[in-house]
Write a structure and sequence with these properties.
This protein is of the alpha/beta class. It has a single domain, classed as Rossmann fold. It has five helices and six strands, in the order E-E-E-H-E-H-E-H-E-H-H.
Length: 141
Amino acid sequence: MKKAIGYISEIQLGYSNCIISCEEQKERIEDFCKRENIILTNIVKEISPENDLFERPGIQYLLKNLNDIDCVIVERPWCIGRKGSVLESFMKKLEEKNVGLICATKLWDCASQFVRRFYRDKKGESIEDEKNLNFDTAKVG
């Protein structure tokens, strides 16, 4: 079985004041892991999402605790960042440890597409194919 760590952080959708709560993200990640038979070893809740990416306590903890982990699961990549450069720098850190990034909700927004293209461009296949995950069953928020 695959092992994963979840990462959650408050997410604001666009310029509205609609927030996707950490609890909602946690529930979606847990549901995804159950459907996909992934062992969820821990869920890291970010306490300082306003900090630069690698200065966030949750990201620092996460990157130090990737031993024997196959992937990091987020509900949406927005909890990491909305800019391609931020997402790419995070995914490169994961790659150094041979760990993938999985989005628990099937989305077609720009950040989610960036994650898919990153893995497809690196390995010639999508992350879904690489990890044999069934994203067709993932709920759309």
